[in-house]
Amino acid sequence: MSNINPIRLGLIWQRLNGVIDEVAETFIRTSFSSVVRENSDMAFSLLDRQGRQFVQTRRSIPSFIGTLPRTLRAMLEKFPIECLDEGDVLISNDAWLGTGHLNDITMVFPIFRTGKVIAFAGSTAHSVDIGGTPSPTAKDCYEEGICIPISKILQKGLENQIVIDFLYANLRGFDETIGDIRAQFAAYKIASGKLFQLLDEEGIEDLDEVIDEILNRSEQSMRGIIKAIPDGVYQDNMTVDGFDQPVTIQCAVTVQEETITVDFSGTSWQIPWPVNCVMNYTYAYACYALKCILDPTAPNNDGSFRPITIIAPEGCLLNAKRPAPVWGRHLSGHYVPPAIYGALSAVLPDKVIAESGSPLWSIYFTGNNENGQSFVRMFFINGGHGARPQGDGPGCLSFPSNVSNQPIEQFEHQLPLLVSEKALIPDSAGAGKYRGGPAQRVSFKSVASQPLSFTIRHERIKYPPRGLFGGLPGRVGADLVNGEKIPAKIKMDLNPGDVATFETAGGGGMFPPRERSPEAIQRDIKSGLITAKFAKEYYGYEEEL
């Protein structure tokens, strides 16, 4: 198979992409939760018998894609292939084996052909409710919800009633969660059927040989690109909000011939608050960051990451030990890409971006509708994207996560809140030859007849997204209730008529502001992205009278 025609291999690869995209769409269209249906907070992929991921849907969350192979390997340690039967589905949400917090449920379906496992369909989906009381002040992972040990939720095609009962007894939103789980069961059947059809039509007798060829070519591509980077050690150091005090992320990227090692030694130690990150999540976002700037066009699979090694000392903020609280692990993990880019900016200035208004902002709303039915809903909002080497950063675009926006009308229909404002914030983007993306302001007015609660866990309130190469930082974010500032990590009540407002951070700029063209400055003033005062102060530009 190593001599397979490259054109035919490319066609097979594209067909595999089509299969997994169709599978993911089946899940999204049949899902029960808005966080999957609207935000696409999910992932679907195909993995081989060794747990190597060889194709994934384009709509997948990067962290889920990066952790799925590691989760499957942990599952196979408990349930080796010879212990699996046709129709089995394995499940777990263990933070240290999966994506880093309990809300993400990972499942794996072995695909049998002629009595033998030939591949696995793997998926991860976010469950807004996972029991317990997820809180920005949780002191350990036991407070954050239920942990599902590696189990068989399907046994020979039949639901394991013990697992189902366990979920029913612990989840407020059981119908929504079990609806999403069963939607994935349906998608697995399509995955196996479409894969069999592909193998038959392409005349493929041994899928392993095709996978080996795809993975090897991706590895060769990545190694060739790394080899072109000058050998050396490149470093960056970030101070970020943390919780009760700032924390530090230290990053050293070592390039040696055809390999890259990212070492986070020197990063702050884990803290007794739920901003700690597990190694799986750190690994996923480090690999994702490197794939984006080094080899974005090659097939994305396990082969791309063979030349990459990620190190984080056990017990540090980016490799927390159990039972550390990890509900908000993205509050540290989303800093991994900008730390890597800050380090590599010295050697790859035309590839990296300035810092975005991330980590991703999310708001959890809980309470009761007028009919007495309880609700738990999330709303995602994004800060401005960092400026790019050849252009401005887009506004309100998430990086490194890629969750989608939820339609306002759909959100308002689900719970007693009115989105009274959703607007770009003038003068929030970091100035530069290429400016950062503007931040946004979103306000929620309670139209309920009784108090409801919201929980937030936001970053970039104290330390703004940095610019690069002389570009200026973006504006920091802010959280307010009725116009008064509140802490960025808090759970509090929202009384009838109250208005909660969330202002994200703007993206950092790139290159000195005085290099920005007058035409671009005029365009920003005309569109309302900057004021004349801002233009004069940061760009030295004054409009002609």
Using brief descriptors, characterize the structure shown:
545 residues
Structure description:
- The protein has 545 residues and is an alpha+beta fold.
- It has helices at 6-30, 34-37, 62-78, 161-170, 174-202, 207-227, 279-294, 330-333, 336-344, 408-414, 518-527, 532-539, and strands at 42-47, 53-56, 89-92, 104-113, 116-126, 151-155, 158-159, 232-240, 247-256, 259-263, 308-311, 361-368, 374-381, 417-424, 440-446, 452-457, 478-481, 484-485, 489-494, 499-503.
| Strand element count | 20
Radius of gyration, in angstroms, nearest whole number: 24 Å
Major sheet characteristics: 7 strands, antiparallel
Spatial separation of the terminal alpha carbons: 71 Å
Number of helices: 12
Record the strand order, biggest sheet.
2-1-5-4-3-6-7
> Quick check: average pLDDT?
95
Which structural class do the helices and strands define?
Answer: alpha+beta
- Indicate the percent of residues in helices: 25-40%
Low-confidence stretches: none
